[in-house]
């Protein structure tokens, strides 16, 4: 029993000081990288805890680490998100919208043309969409090559005039900054709703990053799809007034989509590990009936993998139509 208590105490001290070190190193870190000097304060905490423990007070040592964690947590909460940073070029503008009844005018829709993942022509435009003209929504999943369970998810909305607009919830990187899932736990990145043309946001992933991309028609009524679209627009606008941090666990690309779905869908989305491992989020959508279920999941996945069609349609003005060839529009009865 004494050995067990010793092990538990050691684990508490180790995990507590490790968390403090990571929080001090990563919270608010930007392009300059982790604040390693600041993280050395965790060694002071560890030393104090060990010194107290050696004097024979195991519970006092635990209390030292708990108080250190609480103090660090309090400091972390003082770090606030901002809209004013030196943003990476592809994230320099954040889309915003004006809503007038069923008409939504979105400014700074991204429409880059890529020669590679690091070489592109920049372009943004303003466009007006009418929710009465919605023809469907598509759930997009991009599993990351070589990273188990990791993926990016997006939603695209189609309109009767043949236009498509994609909403992508992402980290807003600063110039010289790279994404880190660990940093995403410690207020390192702001959250942004990127709105863009499919020839940008889809083609970048399928044709240039060479990741698998799946494009699933959402099985929902036109009314629910319109509500989904407007809810995403409202949250996008809210981020201008009140910026937020991206969080790897609670506010990532997929968890944000889940929140929108829960607000406008008749389906309750349960807490599920597949929202944290979004490469499998299509399996959850399949089980909930949010995408078609007329065949086994692997058959549905194969049917909606668009890479070959995307490569064939590379750079063409009718890219969106071509990647949907043989896909049925998925607006069903209410």
- Percent strand equals 15-25%
- Helical element count? 11
The total domain count is: 2
Structural class: alpha+beta
Write out key terms for the chains shown.
alpha+beta, elongated, 12 strands, three-stranded antiparallel β-sheet, 334 residues, five-stranded antiparallel β-sheet
Task: Report what the structure shows.
The chain is built from eleven helices and twelve strands. The chain is an alpha+beta fold and 334 residues long. The chain has two domains: 2-76; 89-332, no CATH class. The strands form four sheets. It has a five-stranded antiparallel sheet with strand order 9-8-7-6-10, with helices on both faces. It is elongated and about 75 Å long. Residues 328-334 have low confidence and may be disordered.
Brief overview, please?
The chain has 334 residues and is α+β, with helices and mostly antiparallel strands.
Break the fold down into its secondary structure elements and pairings.
Layout: H1 2-26, H2 36-39, H3 41-54, H4 58-76, E1 96-100, E2 103-110, E3 113-116, E4 119-121, E5 124-130, E6 134-143, E7 151-159, E8 164-172, E9 190-196, H5 198-208, E10 214-217, E11 220-221, H6 222-241, H7 253-264, H8 281-287, H9 297-304, H10 307-312, H11 319-323, E12 331-332
Parallel strand pairs: 11-12
Antiparallel strand pairs: 1-2, 2-5, 3-4, 6-7, 6-10, 7-8, 8-9
Helix pairs in contact: 1-3, 1-4, 3-4, 6-7
